């Protein structure tokens, strides 16, 4: 399958080599209807309009070309020019991206935005660049919740024995392990099938991903936990970036800035909409809304492991987080 994908990209590259267009192939793993999917289209339209069609953006959603791990190397080899992997997947290259995976570290999206747009964002961009990854922007998805087919989850200990899909960061795996659950790193594109087949019991995700990927159709329980955060870094091929004129770079940066603001608002609205649609459509799913008392117990539980979570994050990042 991977050979076919590479052959496809090779023929696309050859096809565009004889045109006057500058081509951006933008790969991501979620639905076209998700906040990230819609923001990618918004970015595409702006770039093509502002460049008078001299820059063409082709979007490949749902992981049809690459998953969030393999896309980084594809980007470095200029097989694709842009991608938007999750922070958890970028932690394989820069461990500090795991700071967003720490349970209950951030209370609201506005604190996260202060991190993005302040010193934390600057540090993450610099660390990524040293690894050959140029970050253009940070995008939201939102806060995560837990779904599963095993039982009602009201406390972390209720996850004991269940098999959960994770995005692979050490912190996310540890988050489930300390609760007695079994983490399995699996691609998002195949998640629904794995849960439907009983290979996995559950997963954690935002309302929008749960809704647009139809995960609620193969899960019996949803715990509204808001325990962690899911965000993305929009990254660009350095080889591609260095080949661009300053005018084209300016067009891309301006479009990215506008697309980022659009994406922030969209992520909030889409998660609210998705939750309402899940409640409306998920007739066979039981939704567990945690009381303030239960949320306090979750926070206390994970507070016991805070030092372990933070041990993989650099001191300078933690210091800046503390200043938010």
What is the gist of this entry?
By secondary structure, the chain is of the alpha/beta class. The protein has helices at residues 2-17, 35-50, 70-76, 87-90, 109-116, 119-130, 170-177, 191-196, 207-212, 238-243, 246-281, 292-303, 306-310, 315-322, and strands at 22-27, 55-60, 82-83, 134-148, 163-166, 182-185, 202-205, 221-236, 286-289.
SSE inventory with pairings:
Elements: H1 2-17, E1 22-27, H2 35-50, E2 55-60, H3 70-76, E3 82-83, H4 87-90, H5 109-116, H6 119-130, E4 134-148, E5 163-166, H7 170-177, E6 182-185, H8 191-196, E7 202-205, H9 207-212, E8 221-236, H10 238-243, H11 246-281, E9 286-289, H12 292-303, H13 306-310, H14 315-322
Parallel strand pairs: 1-2, 1-3, 5-6, 5-7, 8-9
Antiparallel strand pairs: 3-8, 4-7, 4-8
Mean pLDDT: 93
Question: Number of helical runs?
Answer: 14
What proportion of the residues is helical, as a percent range? Answer: 40-55%
CATH H-level superfamily = Bacterial extracellular solute-binding protein, family 7
- Count of structural domains: 1
The third-level CATH topology is: D-Maltodextrin-Binding Protein, domain 2
Provide the gyration radius in Å.
Answer: 20 Å
Question: Tell me about the biggest sheet?
Answer: 9 strands, mixed
Low-confidence stretches: none
Shape: globular
Secondary-structure arrangement, i.e. CATH architecture: 3-Layer(aba) Sandwich
Based on secondary structure, the structural category is alpha/beta
Q: Give the termini separation.
A: 45 Å
Number of strands: 9
